[in-house]
Amino acid sequence: MDHKQLNLLIKRTMNESTAIKVISLSTADGFNVCTEFGDDYRVEKEKLSAVSSSLASLSNAACKQILKTRLKATIIESIDGNLIFIKTKYGKSDSVLCLIASSELLVGKARYYARQLALSIHEIAVDI
Amino acid sequence: MITKKLAFVGSVGSGKTTLIKNLSQTDTLDTDVVSSVDIGKEMTTVGLDYGYITVDDSLSIGLYGVPGQRKFSFMWDFVKEGLWAVVILIKNNSTESIKELDYLLDYFEITQKLPCVIGITHSDIVRGENTKLKIREVLKQRSLNLPIYSINANLKENAELIIRTLILLEETNNGS
Ligand SMILES: Nc1nc2c(ncn2[C@@H]2O[C@H](COP(=O)(O)OP(=O)(O)OP(=O)(O)O)[C@@H](O)[C@H]2O)c(=O)[nH]1
Ligand SMILES: [Mg+2]
C-alpha cells in the first residue's frame, strides 16, 4: 500500500515546527501505518501505535460512558513536552493520529496542528 | 466493603469481553474497536474491559479484562498490580490458545497461592476433549493444580460458577 499523500501531509506538518518530534498514524487496533521522526528523535513505532490505540479507546470510553459526550482529543502533558492523540479516519479505516512535541511548542498550538492534520487525513481518498 | 481485583486473560477471541459483559452488574467499559486484520471476529479489545459485581455486604469484585493481543501487554502490567485472582480463558481445540497458556502463567506469575481458574470456552460449538488433557500437561510441568471448567462464555450461570470457585479457592488457601 502506497501512502504517498499521507506521507506528504505528515511531512508538511512536521515542517511547521522543529519542536514536533514525532507524528504517527495507527489503525484503531494498534498497527502502525506511517511514522515520521524529527531530527535525532526515535521511539519504537510499533509500541507507539499500540499505546495510541489503547489510550484513544480508553479516552473515548471515558467521554462516551462517563461524560456522555464525544471525544475530541487526548492530551498528555509531560515534563518535557506533550503528546496529542486524535481519532480520525484514513480511507475507511478508523485510525489514531499521534503528535509528540517538546514543550517549546505550546500545547494549544500542538493540538491545532494535530487537528488540522487529522482533518486532512480524513479527506484523503484511499482504498483501505 | 472490600473490593477485590479479578483479571480475565487469554488469547484473542477466547471470550474475555463476552464473559465480563455477562457477569457485570453494571454496564461494562467498552474499548473494543474494529479489527483491521482477520482474527476470526469483527471487534477486538485494545484498552480494558471493566465490570463490577457485588457478592454480598462485605465483598465486591472488580472485573478487569485485558486485550488478548500481546502487543498490548502494557495493559496487562496495569491489571497485574494488586490482583486477587485470575481467570485464564482458552478456546477449545485452538493450538494457539493452548500455547498462550504457558506464556500467561509466566507473565501473571501464577502460583498455587493465587486463586486461579481455567475456563475452556467455545466447547458448545467446537467438539473435542483434548484441550483439557493438554492443559493438564502444561500445569503438571509446573506442579500446578488448578480447576478447569468447560464453559460457554455467553451463559451467566457458567460465569458465576467461576466466581464461586475462586471464592472457595481463597477460603481453602486461607484455611490451610
Ligand atoms: N458459542 C460460544 N461463543 C463464544 C464463547 N466464548 C466467546 N464466544 C464468542 O466469541 C467471540 C469472541 O469473544 P470476545 O469476548 O470478543 O473475545 P476476547 O477474549 O475478549 O478477545 P480479544 O479482546 O480480541 O482478546 C464473541 O463473538 C463471543 O460471542 C463460547 O463459550 N461459546
Ligand atoms: Mg476482548
Outline:
The complex is a heterodimer of chains A (128) and B (176). In chain A, 40% of the residues lie in helices and 30% in strands.
Number of domains of chain A: 1
- Give the CATH architecture of chain B: 3-Layer(aba) Sandwich
Count of β-strands of chain A: 5
- Quaternary state of the chains: heterodimer
Beta-strand residue percentage of chain B: 25-35%
Tally of separate helices of chain B: 5
Q: Class of chain A in CATH?
A: Alpha Beta
CATH architectural arrangement of chain A: 2-Layer Sandwich
Instruction: Using a beta-carbon cutoff below 8 angstroms, give the protein chain pair with the largest interface and the number of residues from each chain.
Output: A-B, 19 and 20 residues
Helix-residue proportion of chain A:
25-40%
Q: How many E strands of chain B?
A: 8
What is the CATH class name of chain B? Answer: Alpha Beta
Mean pLDDT across the residues of chain A is 95
**Separation of termini of chain A?**
9 Å
Looking at the structure, the CATH topology of chain B is Rossmann fold
What is the count of DSSP helices of chain A, taking H or I runs of 4+ residues?
3
Gyration radius of chain A, in Å: 14 Å
| Main structural class of chain B | alpha/beta
Within CATH, the superfamily of chain B carries the name P-loop containing nucleotide triphosphate hydrolases
What's the alpha carbon Rg of chain B, rounded to whole Å?
15 Å
